[in-house]
Amino acid sequence: MAGELNKLSDRKLKTLNGIPTGKIEFYADGAGLSAKASKTGGLSWVFTYRIDGQKLHRLTLGRYPDMSLKDARLSRDKCRQWLASGKDPKHQLALTTQVTLKPVTVKEAIEYWIAEYAEDNRANVERHKAELKKHIYPFIGKMALADCETRYWLECFDRMKKKTPVAAGYVFQMCKQALKFCRVRRYAISTALEDLTIPDVGKKQAKKDRVLNDKEAGDLWAAITASDKFQPYYTKLLNVVMVFGCRTQEVRLSEWKEWDLEAWIWTVPKEHSKGGEKIVRPVPDAMRPFINMLYDETKASGYLLGVVKNSEAVSQWGRSVYRKLGHSQPWTLHDLRRTLATHMNNMGIAPHVVEQLLGHSMPGVMAIYNRSLYLPEKLNALSQWVERLDVLAGNHSNIVILKAN
């Protein structure tokens, strides 16, 4: 086979080029590649092949000397690779040419990742889109991805870093994942962000350890059950977050179709879950009058809280709650999840039950083989937690108050 390859030489091609012959001639180079001489003496490269023993196909690769002998052989080898993979070189060459003539832009590459991955696997995809529209698209969105060097990306992140270094790191991670997704899927190729890490472009979000102590948790629960300390929307949201330890987005986006008011089960769908898996939580007895009250108030809207507020507004409001309660140390709504987890563990609740309530994945092989929902254990844990909150708040008639809200 080796002797059949590379029969032509540049000297031979130069002698053939531009010499009229009055007829079409093919000069084989080997492995399907030939130089085709036209009647007028022009030379072009042709790859000859069959697919599944069907008729002979001839594919024009380019003209000589615009396409050199070396480049023609590279194109031939690529065609043979396509054939070995069961692909028609004619179709693949057309696709490759289309990409070359109309390269994928930065915006197109990221939007491909959003459509093919983020929409189904990221709970905060709308926030992702907003960040990209503000910080990336206006500056490099129209650039060809292949031409967008690392320095152009860094200019975007440096602008963000001056005001919001943590957000710059967040957007960087998102873009890096998008480019890797496009590269793996062979949609578009770029390694411009591969050598960068978060410290190069911004800051990592600090790991938080804030947990509300007994007094703070009691203060908050007393304010929630009194129902006159905060606006009605936020009182209801705090009630659900405090009891279930859920993420605020799970409550903000919650629809009544997620709630089984006969079995008293709340199933958070995967599209509302940060981890991309549904979360199943039982509703403790003490919360059922409150949920029934909400249903009467908001069922017409279809949403648990009646309306859907955006995440930024809820987060901003949540950062000021500690002041309203007279607490000296700041805490956020997300800290209520850590508070539930810490207090439940201190109460002797099994860690795997707490982790399931939080919506975390089970560790190791348990995630594969153990598909139990632990509903009785979860119900018992949540019931104990509400009782504990009542004690901390000095409130022993919580059910009556919830019915009255």
List keywords for this structure.
alpha+beta, 20 helices, disordered C terminus, four-stranded antiparallel sheet, 405 residues, 9% strand, elongated
Radius of gyration (CA) equals 32 Å
The major beta sheet can be summarized as: 4 strands, antiparallel
Low-confidence stretches: 365-370, 396-405
Question: What is the 3D form?
Answer: elongated
Q: If you average the pLDDT, what whole number results? A: 88
How much β-strand is present in the residues? 5-15%
**What topology, given as strand order, has the largest sheet?**
1-2-3-4
Q: Which class do the helix and strand fractions yield?
A: alpha+beta
Q: How many helical stretches?
A: 20
Order of helices and strands: HEEEEHHHHHHHHHHHEEEHHHHHHHH
Distance between the termini: 86 Å
Helix percent reads 40-55%
Number of strands: 7
Give a verbal description of the structure:
- It is a single chain.
- Helix content is 52%, strand content 9%.
- The model is unreliable at 365-370 and 396-405 (pLDDT under 50).
- It is built from 20 helices and 7 strands.
- The protein has a 4-stranded antiparallel beta sheet with strand order 1-2-3-4, covered by helices on one side. Strands 5-6-7 form a 3-stranded antiparallel beta sheet.
- It has helices at residues 10-16, 69-84, 89-101, 106-121, 125-135, 137-140, 150-163, 165-184, 198-201, 214-226, 232-244, 248-252, 288-298, 311-318, 321-324, 335-346, 351-358, 366-369, 375-393, 398-404, and strands at residues 25-30, 33-37, 43-49, 57-64, 259-260, 265-268, 279-282.
